[in-house]
Amino acid sequence: MSHKSYTIVIKLGTSSLVDEVTREPRIANMANIVETVVKLRRAGHRIVVVSSGAIAFGMRRVGVSEKPKQLAAVQALASIGQGRLIGLFDDMFRQMNQAVAQILITRNDIIDFTQYKNAVNTIQQLLAMDVIPIVNENDTLSVAEIKFGDNDTLSAITAGMIHADYLFLMTDVPCLYTDNPRTNPDAKPVLFVDKIDELAVKTDTEAGSKVGTGGMTTKLIAAELATNVGATTIVTLSSQPQYILDIVASIQNAPDGTSQEQEQHVAKEISAGRLPLHTRFVALPKNEQIKSDRRFWLLHGLRTKGSLYIDSGCYEALTRKDRAGLLPAGVVAVTGQFHESECVSIKVIPKRLGTGSESLETVLESAVEVGHCRVNYSSTEIDLIKGLRSSEIEKVLGYADSEYVAHRDNLAFPPESR
């Protein structure tokens, strides 16, 4: 029986690759990872690896026991460690006659949509050449303003960029629990999630391992991002990478059915020991997923520099299929400092200003983010023309580059609340 092939992104945390105590590479686990990835590739799947570990490898090389706080020192360690990390991966994959490629990225590399598409095309071309891309954030150059934040987020963005079918987040616990299993013996495993916003769990607020930066909270954020673009996201044990093979096989052989029937099937297989413990975050239905590259780029590729506040009536108009762009008349307030063509957050205020006794600050604090846009004017200019008709822009500014604050093609809204 022929099986469907998938595009799969596998995120490896630092603790998957480096011992927390000795800081030595976990060679046996890395070998297991390499074997698993190659088996998946030979089975016809398209695999992208998102790997942390450069800073930890650099720390080991120069004998640094604690991660420094100075940015320059961290970047120096990353520059030392990244070559060693990719070199070790290349050596191990070469033993199995599998070519790999290194891709280092920051948000600055995808700030322009053409650059974003170039990054997508490069990864897709590597996959077409049967090469396994190994992606990491470029910590040597990255600063706070252009960082993805953590590789959980980077892996989810990578999954969205290439329209992956599955994202595996490898971690030091086998699945998501209702509470921290290390401190609460009554914590229960969560096996199947199709409504992330209704998930009743307690997650960590600190970083994960001593050598990494991600915890379960970042994985939930990554899962929501990835499932919104159609990538079912799976959390499983990093020390047993071969579990990925079992889970993929179970997906290929799973019977069709409703979400509830699939959940029951997964629970039954895990209970019977035929499937390893894991958490499966189900992708949104196809008709709700973010399929437009530009929409995904606006929502997740760019960092917002400020906010535009609109009322609910304006929001309803902007989310219609026949919408126009955002007109200055629809803008109630502006916060932050930004330039033309930069990305800003769109927030909806609960009621029109002036209808209650609340101060402007109070009303803005209660606003809810609903989307992103790239603006045609700076924050200073928008503040001057907010609430006005487009015909009044030239009178106020002395020019009118556009009748819209943001063109319809530069507006993006996420799927509705799940």
TrEMBL record:
GO biological process: alpha-amino acid biosynthetic process
Keywords annotated in UniProt: Amino-acid biosynthesis, ATP-binding, Cytoplasm, Kinase, Nucleotide-binding, Proline biosynthesis, Transferase
Domain PUA: 306-406
Primary location class: cytoplasm
Gene Ontology molecular function: ATP binding; glutamate 5-kinase activity; RNA binding
Amino-acid biosynthesis as UniProt keyword: yes
Pfam family, one: AA_kinase
SMART domains, A to Z: PUA (SM00359)
GO CC annotation: cytosol
UniProt xrefs under InterPro entries: AceGlu_kinase-like_sf, Asp/Glu/Uridylate_kinase, G5K_ProB, Glu/AcGlu_kinase, Glu_5kinase, Glu_5kinase/COase_Synthase, Glutamate_5-kinase_CS, PUA
CDD domains xref list: AAK_G5K_ProB (cd04242), PUA_G5K (cd21157)
UniProt subcellular location: Cytoplasm
Entry's family note: Belongs to the glutamate 5-kinase family.
PANTHER family: GLUTAMATE 5-KINASE (PTHR43654:SF3)
Name of protein: Glutamate 5-kinase
Organism: Clavispora lusitaniae (Candida lusitaniae)
